[in-house]
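Hi everyone,

Forwarding the result from last night's run.
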Amino acid sequence: MEMLEYFYQNRPQNENFVPRKCTLDDHPRINLFGARGVGKSALVLDYLANLDKKNILYIDLDDPNILFAPLGSLQNFIDKEAIETLVLDHYNDNDISLPKVKQLIIVSRESIDDDSFTQIKLTPLDFEEFLAFENSAHTSASFSHYLKIGSLPRFAISHKATLLETKEFLKSKFSLEEIRLLGFLALFATKQISINQIYTRCKEHFKISKDWLYKTMQKLQTEGIIHLVEDYQPSASKKLVFYDNAITKYLNRNLTFIMLFEQAVVLELLKKDEEICSFYNLGYLYTDGVLTILAPFDSEEAVWAKCQKNISKLKLAEIQDAKIITVANSYEYTIDGIRFEAMPFYEWSLVDFEV
């Protein structure tokens, strides 16, 4: 029980925690899950800070000392200390018999397969959450910062994502093989590509097995590190999007502002509707039939001409409403009964995009 006593007496504390939209409650069994670096541990520690510390046991399953001190006496320790809330952080199908306790919180990268748990998914910061980390009163300036430093809390708190910090984050969260694969995938960020094409091109640069690639791609998708967005046309390849701009930018120094802008828009859309699809070369369509068109710097006239040229595709898809996402422009018009409304990203994400 010595290891359990150590965890009991040395629960980590948050520093500079900024509240998130996602919250925890007193449900008896909770699975908090989400991708690496999205702030799961900070969120659960903030929840624990409001409870009586003598009734809490927080166990970090990533602690290397656990390798030499199995947790077989966990139930006895819970009973002895009258533990009411147990947290198993960094859970990864560990060989642990889940004990009986008033409240059990499991923190993992992927959701666990157990219907008795309330599943709570934590995603990277959306723009509204990011603003809570910012000191600027100007949302337009904060948007530029958001594109630059990304959507992971650790970079938002420090207000920077230097090359060294991003490198250290990757090294601490991913294996060398995963980093190598992510580096290759970043070359195709916001582009259409199939997993078979990824395999064919990867093996030209480094040794890789098809089995490992397919399993790792599935793991990265399930966890939410990458997204392969379906195309409106079933035969077309999926579009690859990363979960964070700072990481993508570090892995691909040739990433343009347009690509970063597109990733930011897609990530906002995915928070609202995981069933979005890429719609030709115009933008993204989600299940309520609204088309999101990306036009960061395009003039109103240029966007109108593009929409007019593709109006038959919109009508065939029975689209009645389209949102045009820009950097700074606002305008609206109607073409053949379809309403088009343009607004800057920072307005769209905060006002028009409330879930």
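The longest strand covers residues 85-91.

Cheers,
N.
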